[in-house]
Amino acid sequence: MSEQRPFHRPMPANWWAHKPYLSYTLRELTGVAVALYGVILLAGLVCLWLGADAYAGYQDVIASKLSLLAHLLLLVAMLWHVVTWFQTLPKTMPRLILHGKPVKPQSITAIGLLVAGVCSVALLAAVVALGAWS
Fold first, then answer.
1. Considering only Cβ atoms within 10 Å of each terminal Cβ, which end of the chain, N or C, has fewer?
2. Are 73 and 117 in contact (CB under 8 A)?
3. From CA 117, how far away is CA 90, in angstroms rounded?
4. Domain of 54, in residue numbers
């Protein structure tokens, strides 16, 4: 009896130069940026729970130039993550039919980005209206 081994697709030495591999890797790395920003927000909540002095220290840290640069980089990574997520969405969902015609993947991406943008602006407006933004 011969032993059959599973097929392993050979990986090219310069895998990062192939667009599908590179874009997938970058997209997954932006997920790490999203998680990192969640940790930063959680640290703010913990400092708020610990009291006024701890929260003032947290505000001093996030107001530094290095922190502002990090937040800018995290914002860019999060925007990339959102855009690529909505680009991936039509490829992974069942075909959407409206009025007997299939909806174009570009339309699904555009509508998703539009809704995400409108929700973000509405949330920012609510925060400003409540006076929580200083």
1. N
2. no
3. 18
4. 15-92
Closest CA to 37 of 7, 72, 6, 13: 72
**What is the pLDDT at residue 132?**
65
Residue 10 belongs to some domain of the structure = no
87-123 tens-digit pLDDT: 988 888 888 888 999 999 999 999 999 999 999 999 9
Q: Is 71 helix (H, G, I), strand (E, B) or coil?
A: helix
**What's the rounded Cα separation, in Å, for the pair 73 and 40?**
14
| DSSP secondary structure letter of residue 104 | P
Query: How far is it, in rounded angstroms, from Cα 31 to Cα 82?
Result: 10
| 2 has a pLDDT exceeding 70 | no
| Contact partners, residue 43, CB within 8 Å, separation at least 6 | 58
